Fold each of these.
Amino acid sequence: MIPSFHVHVGPKIPLRLGKAYYALATAHAALGTLAEIAAWYILLAAGTKVLAPKLRMTDYKLWTRSVRVLWWLELVLGLATYIRWYVPRS
């Protein structure tokens, strides 16, 4: 996804963000990045001792549920982006 975004969307973000083609792809990329970073944080905080004790978590429920919601929103945005980009309009 990164190469496609970089070639087709990235150079035109400031000017054409009002169009659905670019707005959906940008929202998909931003939300996906946020979900990925949050998932890595949970993984590092839960499964390793890489992080300082202050940054580790003890209650994972809220964090994992929040990331799950982000992933579902990301999936919906990904499908919307795919439909907007590749499904022909009649």
Amino acid sequence: MSFQKIDGVEIAARAHGEKCWNAGESAGGRMTRILIVYHSQTGNTEKMAGAVAEGAASIESIEVILKEAKDTSLEDLLVCDGLAIGTPENFGYMSGAVKDFFDRTFYPAEGKVFRKPYVVFISSGNDGTGALSSIDRIALGYQFKKVYEPVIARNSKGGVTNEILAQCRELGQTIAGGCEAGIY
């Protein structure tokens, strides 16, 4: 396990399955950070998270931090410039691990994440709308800013398609490029 200090916060890379790409600083100062928070039970959401990370990392001067929801801290949320949230749809809702991430960070982050850009990706055995509406409702409380349409792998019980993974890469590129350019 290795650690990197970013703005006084020690971020673990490769601990508990999390990954960090493009770590370092750009010529103009610190890199733009995209945090990808996800939970996966079957591996579908994890594949989608990896594709989002690949897309975001394809933008120069972007640092991508990919973490499972259970391992993601308030500090991770506070130091990122953009956020991608991934979950399976469980019983018409986001996963318990993603909800736990929100529960642990909501009040401590209050007033500190205003208009932070976010995107969502969901693997679903159904239509994904229940998970999406619950995430959007919580994001409204944080006062996050949704910057792109969600990617929903509907009926993904058999796995996620290459088309869905391509959409996830585009999702990652969009949030990373927008944050890096200062659009969001």
Amino acid sequence: MNIFNRIVDIYKKIVNKICDVFEVLAITALAVMFVSVMIQITGRYFFRNTPGWTEEFSRQLMVVFCFIGLAIGVRNKSHIAIGFFVGKMPRTPQWIIETSGKILIALMGIMMSMQMGPFFTVLRYNRLPGTGMPVGWTFVIPTLVGILVALVALYQIYDHFKYGTDEEQKQKLLDEAATKGV
């Protein structure tokens, strides 16, 4: 194994660890959002008094959960794709379309982080009325997720050049699993 492949493997491991941390953050956000909504429902229906912070807090957690879900979807290749049509094409057009898609995903991640980042600095002194949280913090997670999406897409592009189309990569994994199971 040459040095470049080792560097790429280390890069993949680091990016996947970062994704794992974000995944734990998303699960925590979902759990806390569930508790917040339950407090809101309990307050509304049993005490006729809804705490003012619950709706706003849940909305902020929903932003965290959704954006992190976007990055995890890109990592797991579970984002929306037109695989049916692409899978019916010959290998070369299929490879070109998939590579182009991955390049566009990387560019989208870069653009997302570039467009969301300045909102933090502009809105960091504005406060949300219910919680008093700075509005700018809403844009931190989308900025970080944009960077993460670009990092994931970059190693997927490398994998695409090295191992072939997504379908070929899936088939290799299935073959490896079948031989280990024997």
